[in-house]
TrEMBL record:
Residues 197-395 form the Tyr recombinase domain. This is Site-specific integrase. The keyword Transmembrane helix does not apply. The keyword DNA-binding applies.
């Protein structure tokens, strides 16, 4: 079995990672090695070596990576590695953190296969070569220390989207470098099977039971506001009194106009929300208004935070997360949750959406309220609803079978 070894300089700093193995896996096999810039890339290659029976993975060229077909030495600016890197580095309207993540994913998952290819080539970039690359991603094991797991369907779809964006740019170039984008022919893995693992929907009764298990009043109010608005944690903890408008109209609204972000050094700062659609204004219920009132809606300064940590600073997710975990444990002991139900703070957002959909509110309204960039996201992600949705559906079907119509119910 191959192994990953950090390589250090004289100062003790890790400068690269070397994958080592004996050819064929036997004791008499000659030592083989390949070197990588970071641990993730090394882990990806280690998995490939193991799956190849402790031999060089098919198509891998030492020091260069996977070669789909020997390029006819494309112009350097059209070599995919250079073309994609330049495109991402010059892209406007994105955060630096996202730019770095794109470059990292290109180096780790896309360049090893397509890095030396010609972005103009229909031989190098075809539905067949892209399908073969997708299949490798689906079978890939990622190592994190002693643990390993497969890439999630969502990650595979994101990587495919990154590759597709580069090829689409080549199609739209002036003059065009390609006639079409072969990524549009791909059949991508479905993420549906992972929804149950990634999301945990809570009923209103479960949220109420969980509230009673918090010992800190601010935490109870945070849960109330989070469930009542569906805000992301970074949006929620950036709320200030200035964001609550139309207070005296009986139709109070909340403006989402900032969220906590991280800069290149990992430091937090207040910046615009996740996407353009995330910058939104939503109605809030009387219960949410009461919670904000108790938090200091009329006492705090307009630019002071509702939710803070020690010394009035940003409330860290991990700090609240520890108290959340304790409350969930107590709720489970009290019978609020079944043994297998393990909600996270973000599941308050999921539960907010599920409550709206199960009550009959349309997807366009839900999309605008929670700030999804696309209604397709709303539709794809929230296919699993609260139990009441099934009850309502069964009542409708039963009434139809009986020759009648189900009674209308209020959704306001």
């Amino acid at each position: 079995m191959a192994s990953v070894h950090p390589r250090k300089n004289r100062a003790g700093e890790i400068t690269s990672y070397q994958v080592k193995w004996r050819d064929g896996g036997g004791r008499d096999g000659a030592w083989q090695s390949e070197t990588f810039e970071d641990e993730v890339q090394a882990g990806v290659f280690k998995t490939a070596v193991d799956e190849a029976g402790n031999r060089w993975p098919p198509g891998w060229v030492k020091g260069r990576g996977y070669i789909v077909a020997e390029p006819a030495q494309p112009d350097e600016k059209y070599r995919f590695r250079n073309y994609a890197t330049t495109m991402i580095e010059n892209r406007t309207g994105i955060e630096e953190r996202y730019r770095r993540d794109c470059i990292r994913d290109l180096k780790t998952y896309i360049f090893p296969t397509f890095g030396e290819c010609d972005v103009r080539s229909t031989e190098h970039f075809s539905s067949d070569t892209i399908d073969a690359w997708l299949r490798k991603l689906e079978l890939l094991w990622i190592w994190r220390g002693a643990d390993k797991k497969r890439l999630s369907p969502k990650t595979v779809r994101n990587l495919h989207g990154l590759l597709s964006s580069v090829l689409e740019r080549a199609v739209l170039a002036e003059p065009p470098l390609r006639s079409r984008n072969p990524c549009k022919l791909s059949n991508l893995p479905r993420a549906d099977d992972q929804i149950d693992d990634e999301m945990c929907f809570m009923t209103p009764q479960e949220v109420d039971g969980l509230l009673r298990c918090f010992s800190v009043r601010q935490d109870q109010l945070l849960v109330t506001v989070a469930y009542g608005t569906g805000l992301r944690f970074g949006e929620l903890t950036a709320l200030m009194p200035q964001d609550i408008i139309d207070r005296d109209t009986g139709k109070v609204k909340l403006r989402v106009q900032r969220a906590w972000k991280r800069d290149e050094e990992g430091a937090y700062f207040l910046g615009p929300p996740k996407t353009k659609k995330a910058r939104r204004t939503i109605r809030i219920s009387a219960g949410v208004v009461e919670a904000l009132d108790e938090l200091g809606l009329y006492e705090l300064g307009d630019d002071e935070l509702f939710f803070t940590g020690a010394g009035g600073t940003r409330l860290h997710y991990s700090t609240f997360g520890d108290r959340w975990a304790r409350a969930v444990r107590l709720a489970r002991q009290a019978g609020v949750f079944t043994a297998g139900k393990k909600p996270t703070p973000h599941d308050l957002r999921h539960s907010h959406v599920a409550a709206l959909i199960s009550a009959g509110h349309g997807l366009p309204y839900v999309q605008r309220r929670v700030g999804h960039q696309s209604i397709q996201t709303t539709s794809d992600v929230y296919g699993h609803l609260l139990p009441e949705a099934d009850d309502d559906a069964m009542a409708t079907i039963e009434a139809s079978l009986a020759g009648g119509r189900a009674p209308l119910r209020s959704v306001g």
